[in-house]
Structures
1.
Amino acid sequence: MSAVLYNSTRTKGIQVKASEAILKGLSEDGGLFVPDHIPALDKSLSELAKMNYREVAYEVMKLMLSDFTEDELKACINNAYDEKFDTEAIAPLTEACGAYYLELFHGKTIAFKDMALSILPHLLITSARKNNVKNEIVILTATSGDTGKAALAGFADVKGTRIMVFYPKNGVSPIQEKQMVTQTGDNTRVIGIHGNFDDAQTGVKKLFSDKELEKELDKKGFQFSSANSINVGRLVPQICYYVYAYVTLLREEKIKDGDKINVVVPTGNFGNILAAYYAKQMGLPINKLICASNENKVLFDFFESGVYDRNREFKLTSSPSMDILISSNLERLIYHIAGDDADKNKALMEALSGSGRYEITEDMRKGLSDFYGNYADEEETAAEIKRLYEACGYVIDTHTAVASAVYGKYVKETGDKTPAVIASTASPFKFTRSVMNAIDKARYDRLSDFELVDELSKLANVEVPAAIEEIRTAPVRHDIQCEISEMKDKVTEFLR
């Protein structure tokens, strides 16, 4: 089997090994790294059904990260998926009201980002060793709420690294913010920017492409890498849990070998659903990839019209991790449906950064046939939380509710009863106020954030997660804010 190499989406001829792609995060031309081919799973689904999460993860990742040795990769996996997770299954499936909810929030920071960010530091340090990197690695990340804390937790006090996280000051939930600003670790820094997530993400991308800054940092013994979903080391581990979800259904005899499933993903930056797309390319029997948006429905409009247009009002919603108008990972899909043509993709991305919009061709639109897009507004999201609790006694967070509501629309529209796996991307404890107000606003609206946590615990009959307990009284360690134009200054201050 030939090794998987990674090409830039914007320049033909830029090609690197997996470990180099992980180290760089972003290609020097501003493009993303994409696999030059998608290898097929080399174990049968019935064989995979006999394996635990760590074993399945190895079978998937060994194909996509082919320059890692077996010992290197297994060490990364075993260090990542250990007692940090509060369930042996790592990513359990819960059946509720006719769908299977893939619970991706059992890690240290109770969000799906833990699934990839628990392993990324190990992949990164291993990659540095493999490539004889002597510089200290500086992780630079923009977050819409969850990536930041998961990355901070993963990299805190990891030797040879520093991590700096930018988040929109008024664009995350109170629990998300408290998780970040109380983060310990001498190598961590958290900054609230006066702007939205797209501003933070654009600012970070500019810093990555600043050649003068790169030279200046290199002289001082530093180099940038990314923990955002643009990093191959984030994307590849996400493929694993879709494979694991399928073989769990197979093992539990909910489906037969070869039966198709639908996958529903609440989508912001497009990385999580792109991982499901790659799982399908690897041979996982997926029927439809259902892309669920909130009121920032730029992706829904794109799937409907073939036009991507970020020129619209940015809305702050109860599902802040999806409050995104520039979905970075969509670029990878655009590259693929353009026939892996870097020049075509580059022209579209230049149009996006210039006029704020681009339109794909009819031929390219045919490449979107695997996808179905829809959205749920704030009212529909709250109603879905209430419906699922009252009908099944199952409590979900706001992002999962967007996905669940969109799945309901899909079934109503198509009549498709294929078994569905809904990516449950965060614990309801991360968004207690929105969740509890959806269930009974009159009763819960006046309670404090942590009083709501205790009420939710009683309501859902679930213990308060350790991630929430530990921030109740934790002191604020990061209280820095800045303008978008000051982001570079804050980075150089941190690295002095």
2.
Amino acid sequence: MINVDLIKWNSDGLVPVIVQEVDGRVLMLAYANREALEKTIATGWMHYWSRSRQKLWRKGETSGHTQHLISLHLDCDQDVVLARVEQTGPACHTGAPTCFGDLAPDVVQELWRVFADRARTPKADSYVNLLLSDERRLRQKIGEEGVEVALAQSNEELVRESADLVFHLCVLLFARGLQWSEVLAELARRRR
């Protein structure tokens, strides 16, 4: 944990707090005063200072979307705090998993770009186009890949087969006009 006496507070007695899920996703930015950080350290639950309401608040006190503290870190200039947390439910007041929109891993975003390109300009030898043109075949492939995941013996085989399953699932989501972030949001919603 950090020593709050080392923090260089701004002129309002606040410090920005970057909040990061333990999986590495940046969830939000908030501000804390000394009391908020001391309560966070004492209770293990994230507390902040609301600049608009001018009061202390505990994340999730009304929504239930709490942040369990894992660790606090002070940056090299001692004027920004990094809070690593376990988030329950979405972090953003809008219901999004993060306050920064869709933060799906870059590889997933790249898949969606490829899918969109193939949908706009089909290619005769494209596996993605083959899957996009036949949802029945795509669903069958997802079933086959699911069985292969279940039967995988080694860790390496499990990783390979899981990647195949996720790829085909992503194609189906894209074909239905859905985003990977919707799956992540549903998983976050279930963590309550």
